[in-house]
Amino acid sequence: MSTEKEVYDRQADQYEALIAREDYQGNILRALQEITPLAGRVVLDLGAGTGRLAVLLAPHVERIRAFDVAADMLRVCAERLTASGLTNWQVDVADHRHLPADDHFADLVVSGWSVSYLAVWDPEHWREGLDAWMDEMKRVLKPGGLIVLYESLGTGNAEPIRLPHMDRFYPWLDEMGFQNKWIRTDYQFKSLEEAVDLAGFFFGAELAERVQKENLVILPECTGVWWKKV
Length: 230
Fold this sequence. Notes:
By secondary structure, the chain is α/β, with parallel strands linked by helices. The protein has a single domain (about 5-230), classed as 3-Layer(aba) Sandwich (Rossmann fold). It is about 40% helix and about 25% strand. It contains ten helices and nine strands. The strands form two sheets. A seven-stranded mixed beta sheet has the order 3-2-1-4-5-9-6. Strands 7-8 form a two-stranded antiparallel ribbon. Strand 2 (about 65-70), helix 5 and strand 3 (about 90-95) form a beta-alpha-beta unit. Helix 2 packs across helix 9 (about 190-205) and helix 9 (about 190-205) runs antiparallel to helix 10.
């Protein structure tokens, strides 16, 4: 099994095959629309990956810029946005903490399953990384602008759990004053064979074995949504 970093750097097409099966109920966009209106908004999507959020949001906003440190992920994101026929988008390789965007440029920052890596991948400097990220959000957002984050509360779970490897990140969000709720973002696969293959590819053999044993063509997933005005 590849590490997450290896997947993001070199296996974007297979990753997109997995993500294309996620959130068949449409709760990701619905949750955001319940938090804030989208029409006329200039949006930055951080850790955009293969375009999970950018492709959803582009039809609803004035402009969206998608950033990721992994060029291969952005290649797929750009392909998907091009296929949409829309022209109100741009993709750029960039770190969350150093964005090529003007001061007070955006109305809304969104990020899915990404900001937490600043803590998870650098445990010795997790607070410095997250605090630098928050400072950058205050720079790029207009006064009163909004941050909305989607982060995992358990794949394979019907009810939310706080994941042990994110034990620094969740309390930091509380400390920063983020509001939160949770949604289901279940995967719906075309077949059991596909479910086993794609679940194993990203989540590992243990979950793949459970998918096989329990015939989980629909794989439950819980996702937290956190939001804060700056």
